Fold this protein.
Amino acid sequence: MPNQHLPTKPCAHCKREFAWRKKWERDWARVKYCSKRCAAAAKASGRG
Ligand SMILES: [Zn+2]
């Protein structure tokens, strides 16, 4: 196997695609942002 196929989704804030992370294995369906930074920025902008 050359690569595992990891799911990706677009960040709700910066719109970049980001890939599944081990730390999200139980939470992937609820992850909306690629980073805490984007989550914080999204909240700060009023939609959160
Ligand atoms: Zn982002």
